Amino acid sequence: MAPSIRRLGILTGGGDCPGLNAVIRAVAKTAILQYGIEVVGIEDGFQGLIEHRVRPLGIKDVSGILTRGGTILGSNNKCNPARYCTGRKPNGELIWEDVTEKCLTTLARERLESIIVIGGDGTMACAAPIAAAGINVIGVPKTIDNDLVGTEITFGFLTAVATATEALDRLHSTADSHHRVMVCEVMGRNAGWIALTAGVASGSDVILLPEIPFDLRRIADDIDRRMRDTGFAIVVVAEGARPQSGKQVVSRYDPTSHDPIRLGGIGNLVANEIADLTGVETRTTVLGHIQRGGAPIASDRILATNFGFHAMAVLASGKRNRMVVRENNLFSDIDLFETVGKQRLVPIDHPLIAAARAIGTSFGDGAGSITPKPIPSALV
Ligand code: F6P
Q1: Phi, psi (5° rounding) for residue 14?
Q2: Is residue 44 annotated as a catalytic residue, yes or no?
Q3: Mutate to test the pocket of ligand 1, among 44, 77, 258 (most ligand atoms within 8 A of CB)
Q4: Could you give the C-alpha distances from 290 to 33, 136, 252, in angstroms and in order?
Q5: Are residues 283 and 351 in the same domain?
Q6: Which domain CATH number covers 121?
Q7: Considering the entire predicted model, what is its pTM?
Q8: What is d(CA 157, CA 95) in angstroms, rounded to the nearest whole number?
Q9: Which tens digit of pLDDT belongs to each residue from 159-208?
Q10: pLDDT tens profile 1-12
Q11: Which ligand 1 atom is the nearest neighbour of the CA of 239?
């Protein structure tokens, strides 16, 4: 055990995700029971660090939270201390400041030299200046999008896939009854892991990913074929998917946010085009934050508990500024700074795409079967 650790902070950053509470519980219980470390929860991500909002976390505080969705600490995906919006000038221009020093003051007042930061790529990027200033930051990879580099899986992803798969299964029966096309928009900004995995798990006919720009005429041809064969069709589209000749669909832009772009709307666009091109009645469902809410499934509770325990083991070993990862089913850790500004996209020759193409699934690009490359797959 690194001798100096007496107190430890925990922070959850970015969009929430099933399994956050399971990580908080595992970190806090391991810290208290195995190492006798006092644990402090930082509220609402980096916002709580800037505003000095923290609270003690004892065994009682983290008991009974394993199965709960969300995060008992609160989270925030708008705030980056290194580029923080503090208001507007009289001419309306936004004022940006680096408030990292405020975070360091909170940490010093709380006598916290180490923090566990649970988040995605944005959260790790926000934590990097704090780590560079001398605080030991141990990251735990969270996101339903499953797009963090260095780890084959993030917790929360498999719960989101289970939720999306159940929704797609339900859409199947109503599509069948009405002989309709059902389009379901799922999350996945630049990486289509949820669309791909839930699409295959539900037997969807068309899967549209950000990594494979699509051609609407080819999708219409594939739908026509499917309507002739079975009389209905299911399309799953990632929110970040785009036509070959177009851009991602942005639903809102918030200039004051560290993460200003909200995607959304591609489902409706695809559905309207399919209806116009095929003449088949088409409906859209947008799953949205239903994929992020609610209890984690069993495998995510286990993954989150393992990540929390490993984060404490890494901290106790004296290592600095690491992110815990799972690779080939084994837990290890990588340099936290390695993850900043990178995303793990779906390789277009991923074995699951090859398997889906082989059974006739369309990716909207007109390509037929391909030979898969032997890429290790972490989807199950
Ligand atoms: O990053 C995870 C994610 O679920 C994305 O897929 C989605 O674009 C985003 O969060 C939505 O975030 P917000 O909470 O700001 O709506």
Answers
A1: 80, -165
A2: no
A3: 77
A4: 35, 34, 19
A5: yes
A6: 3.40.50.450
A7: 0.95
A8: 36
A9: 999 999 999 999 999 999 999 999 999 999 999 999 999 999 999 999 99
A10: 555 799 999 999
A11: 8
